[in-house]
Specification:
alpha/beta, glutamine amidotransferase, Lipid_II_synth_GatD, glutaminase activity, peptidoglycan synthesis, 6-stranded mixed sheet, UDP-N-acetylmuramoyl-L-alanine:D-glutamate ligase, ligase
Length: 735
């Protein structure tokens, strides 16, 4: 190593000694931070310590997969260097290498294998320097959109990282078309893994992108596991899931967990390449994690015969997938930090016939400030659970409470899991409480459970939010709804392309409109129009269209251009429409995708140009449609400028936000069309905006001679305490 590297290593070693010996704290990322400050190329200078290495990345499962690989490597008699504490950025990986450097005399003569969890965006900093022998790509889902941006950005970062280390062997989840798209872009040797055959155990309405990476046509699936994972093929160009080199088959779910057979790459006649495995941990995602871990560990030289013992002994870190005994009840705790992860937890609760549950949601920087993704979680599947008791907590508890209200679940707000436990002391002791929390909300839950599991607390049930009785209880649970009015046809809510434009929980807007109609006895029906479907606007009353990733939005743009005249005629005939983010841009004359200028529909007089960086954060807009500001979250790179003839939705209350960050305006109000960058989704905390859409739709029906809607106007009031509390909480988050 160079003199600079030696100085960096020494300084980091002193910092690590001080942290452990004086402050009695773990080394954490600080030694790595100090070392990199002195020598930015320190990872490259320490990489020679390793005989082989693997970097693990992906949205979900990084920590579990990394630790399983590390345990298998260690069980095979190899020396393992690993950032087990989960410090998965450049500083944490550097810290693990520095630790190995300090112990190299003790481990001299042994094979040293590096196993490193890495944040997706930091792969571009780690791979060019570490040059790992292997790289595991688990999956790509929506996560922290305000930090990562759209998934296209994450794909670009990972592809660039791999291209910088072309000899690194890519082990990737071929069931995920987003991962396969990366594999097809890079020169690296590759090993594809996946599940062979439909499991029949888990499904999901979730999908990040089901569009072809080659031609952007909608993918077709032979079978779907969850999210966008499955056996896919493009009917237009033939792009498809590649042939699997490692796969599982005969996946069986029982009360004790999963059992399956795993075929490892290599000689198919070699019995050592076929493993019969079992795991006590439920969730099909765990099968994918295990498959990736075993494949990578064996590629690094570990003994596959050790893997089942490793699985049997595996204890998840930090309280994940853990069962506790607290206050006389079993509590199952787990982490879920994005829509697919949360949806998997919901499916497990349902499969376990769970009826006691507590969900905690924070919006700290590490979580992502945008929590609109909770509207893509399938809470509805729990609504019919007999005797359900639900609690919500965290800094965005109000948002969760509103989300569950529209799923017909009455949730009470608690500050800690201890309160939830104290509130269910009257429930049978054998019923498990499921506690699910996102990233920064999870450690306090675990800390409470650790304390409660070690003491006999005599705590009595505290006062919790009991707002959900009487009239509000009927609204929140869906019981005792008023008899529907008699109409020739229900109010038709046309949700355009929910399979493509689903990035910001926009499906929640359709839920909000439909529920607010039902609570008033207004017959309403959501009509989801997918790519390739016939678009019939003759009987449309409200059109909702959301935002999506660039390639998905481009596919919609191509389809809608052929229907521009029909859509424009609907708008000019005072048709009611709400367009969010990307679709708002699409309604203008033009917008940009990268360096390419894309022709819009020209329905509103506006152009969207490229901006320097993204406008991201909580926002509010003063508008003539309501006495209170509308609130939401914005996350867009384009800057939209309206012609003087267009009317804006309102004035942004936060400088530097809104349409373009310059003129202080937000959104567009063109007849009965609203275009806006507000999401969250837009209607969840702005019930007056939802009611404006409903009322305008009914007034339009009345103006065309539909006298039956007269009795529904003006709209009867609803109890919006929960929505308005969520709005008030959001207002406090404004800068």
């Amino acid at each position: 190593m160079s003199i600079t590297s030696n100085i960096a290593t020494t300084a980091a070693g002193i910092a690590r000694w001080g942290l452990r010996s004086v402050l009695h704290r773990s080394g954490g990322a600080l030694p790595g931070k100090i070392g990199l400050a002195i020598d930015p190329e320190l990872i490259a200078h320490l990489a020679h310590l390793l005989d082989a290495s693997v970097v693990v990345t992906g949205t979900n499962g990084k920590t579990t997969t990394t630790n399983l690989i590390a345990d298998t490597v260690a069980a095979s008699g190899l020396t393992c260097v690993c950032n087990r504490a989960g410090n998965n950025m450049e500083t944490g990986i550097t810290g693990a290498l520095l630790e190995a450097s300090s112990e190299r005399r003790r481990t001299a003569g042994t094979v040293r294998v590096g196993v490193f969890e890495c944040d997706e965006l930091y792969t571009v900093r780690v791979l060019p320097r570490l040059k790992p022998t292997h790289f595991v790509l688990l999956n790509l889902f929506r996560d922290q959109l305000d930090r990562y941006g759209e998934i296209d950005h994450t794909q670009d970062a990972i592809a660039s990282a791999l291209a910088s280390s072309p000899e690194t062997i890519l082990i990737f989840n071929a069931d995920d078309p987003l991962c396969t798209a990366i594999a097809d872009r890079v020169p690296n040797p590759r090993v594809a893994f996946g599940i062979q055959g439909a499991t029949g155990t888990e499904t999901s309405r979730m999908a990040e992108s089901r569009f072809c990476a080659k031609c952007n046509a909608a993918l077709e699936y032979e079978y779907l596991q969850y999210g966008q994972l499955g056996a896919y093929r493009c009917p237009a160009c033939g792009w498809e899931r590649p042939e699997l080199e490692a796969w599982t088959h005969d996946v069986t779910l029982s009360g004790d967990g999963y059992s399956f057979c795993l075929h490892l790459p290599g000689n198919t006649a070699d019995p050592a390449r076929e493993l019969a495995l079992t795991t006590a941990y439920n969730g099909l995602y765990m099968v994918y994690n295990i498959m990736a871990a075993c494949t990578a560990a064996c590629a690094l030289g570990a003994d596959p015969s050790r893997f089942q013992d490793v699985l049997d002994a595996y204890v998840p870190t930090g309280g994940r997938m853990t069962r506790w005994r607290a206050m006389g009840r079993t509590v199952a705790s787990d982490l879920a930090k994005n829509p697919v992860g949360f949806d998997r937890q919901i499916q497990q609760i349902k499969a376990s016939n769970g009826r006691l549950m507590a969900f905690f949601l924070n919006d700290a920087e590490a979580d992502g400030r945008d929590v609109s993704w909770i509207w893509d979680v399938d809470f509805e599947c729990l609504a019919e659970t007999p005797g359900i008791r639900a609690f919500v907590g965290g800094s965005r508890a109000n948002d969760l409470q509103v989300r569950l209200k529209y799923a017909s679940i009455d949730a009470q707000i608690v500050e800690r899991v201890e309160q939830a436990l104290a509130s269910v002391t009257d429930e049978p002791a054998g019923d498990v409480l499921f506690a699910v929390a996102n990233y920064t909300a999870f450690p306090p839950v675990v800390a409470d459970l650790k304390r409660l599991s070690s003491e006999d607390t005599g705590i009595t049930a505290p006062q919790v939010d009991q707002t959900a009785h009487g009239e509000q209880a009927a609204v929140a649970t869906g019981d005792e709804l008023p008899a529907p009015a008699v109409l020739d046809r229900p109010l038709r809510i046309v949700h355009l392309y929910p399979d493509a434009l689903n990035l910001y929980g926009d499906g929640g807007n359709a839920m909000v409109v439909e529920r607010r109609c039902a609570w008033r006895g207004i017959p309403a029906k959501i009509d989801n129009v997918h790519m390739g479907d016939e678009l019939d606007l003759a009987t449309a009353d409200i059109i909702l269209i959301g935002g999506g990733a660039d390639r998905d939005q481009l596919a919609v743009a191509h389809e809608l251009r052929s229907r521009r005249d029909e859509l424009s005629a609907y708008v000019e005939d005072d048709g009611v429409m709400l367009a969010i983010c990307g679709s708002y841009q699409l309604l203008g004359r033009s917008y940009y995708m990268g360096d390419d200028k894309i022709e819009g529909l020209g329905i509103i007089a506006a152009d969207t140009v490229r901006g320097d960086g993204r406008l991201t954060g909580n926002v509010a807009v003063k508008t003539e449609l309501s006495s209170d500001p509308f609130v939401g979250f914005e996350n867009h790179g384009g800057r939209t400028f309206l012609d003087e003839c267009e009317h804006t939705l309102g004035v942004s209350t936060v400088p530097g936000t809104g349409n373009n960050g310059k003129d202080g305006l937000e959104g567009c109000l063109h007849r009965n069309l609203i275009g806006t960058y507000l999401h969250g989704p837009a209607l969840s905390k702005n019930p007056d905006l939802a009611d404006w859409l409903i009322e305008r739709a009914l007034e339009r029906r009345r103006s065309t001679g539909d006298a039956q809607v007269e009795a529904l106007l003006p709209l009867s009031p609803l109890n919006d305490d929960r929505e308005l509390s969520a709005r008030a909480a959001a207002m406090k988050l404004l800068p």
